[in-house]
Amino acid sequence: MARQKGIVFFEGTLGGVNFYYRKGVPTARRAGGGFTAKAIKTSPSMERVRESNTEFALCSKVNKHFKLALRPFLVGYKDGTLHARLMRLFLGIKDLDATSKRGERRVGVGYATAYGPRMLSDFKVTPERPRLFDGTYGFDWDALRFEVSDFSIAGARFPNGADTMEVVVGVLRFDFDTCTYTSVMADGVFVDRDFDATAFAIAVDGLPEGDGALVAVARVAFYQRVNDGLFLLPGGDGYGAVLFGR
């Protein structure tokens, strides 16, 4: 039995090694005999564990900074599961890297494949509201515009007490190698309960500067009007966000 050391700790079974917490201490054990922490770092039989640990740490760094990049788009949203769900996403995108050897596979290389942007676009940012609203919507990268059609106010699914829905759209540029990012956001558009149009669009004024992948973000939030102020209605299915990878 040996204690796990490092910045990343596992739970589960990998390469015939059981990783678990014993009295709050991250511990590793292999059936049929014990081994030391030094063996985990140096033993040839632990090479796969070391490779996985390195890739996990790289994905964890991407996850941390990507969440920070999303923060301006998710003001008012709280979800304790987002970190773990994003981690699974980036581990999956990393697995798309078929050119790097094990232990060196990276999210950026996996994202550059044809399936990488699709995996990001399919990710449910807000599971309680996976779709912003009923109807058809998408981001036109040529026009830099979020376009909505077949819209109805009933399909917006206003929560009880909500008077208006705010739609916010922007574009994030994220470098998966350096974990640096920039973004641009359009002014929020408010859709009241008496809105009767079936289509609308929100344009973004240019792309963010820098290098890296482009990701469009759209989110909806609902507010109640009190006197001259707007108060966000938190929780439940009253908050939605989607990603459009490119």
Features:
elongated, 246 residues, alpha+beta, six-stranded antiparallel sheet, single chain, four-stranded antiparallel sheet
Describe, in plain words, how this protein is organized in 3D.
This protein has 246 residues and is α+β, with helices and mostly antiparallel strands. Among the domains are: 1-42, no CATH class; 125-245, Immunoglobulin-like (Sandwich), CATH 2.60.40. It has helices spanning 37-42, 47-70, 82-94, 107-111, 116-122; strands at 2-3, 12-14, 17-22, 25-30, 136-140, 145-149, 164-174, 181-185, 189-192, 200-203, 213-226, 229-232, 239-245. Strands 7, 8, 9, 11, 12 and 13 form a six-stranded antiparallel beta sheet that branches. A hairpin with a 6-residue loop joins β7 (164-174) and β8 (181-185). It is elongated. The mean pLDDT is 87.
Bin the helical content: 10-25%
Strand segment count: 13
Report the major sheet.
6 strands, antiparallel
CATH class of the domain at 125-245: Mainly Beta
The whole-number mean of residue pLDDT values reads 87
Structural class: alpha+beta
Tally of individual helices: 5
CATH architecture annotation of the domain at 125-245: Sandwich
Order of helices and strands: EEEEHHHHHEEEEEEEEE
Rg of Cα set: 22 Å
Percentage of residues in strands = 25-35%
Distance between the termini: 46 Å
The residue ranges in which pLDDT falls below 50 over 5 or more consecutive positions are none
The best one-word shape is elongated
CATH fold description of the domain at 125-245: Immunoglobulin-like
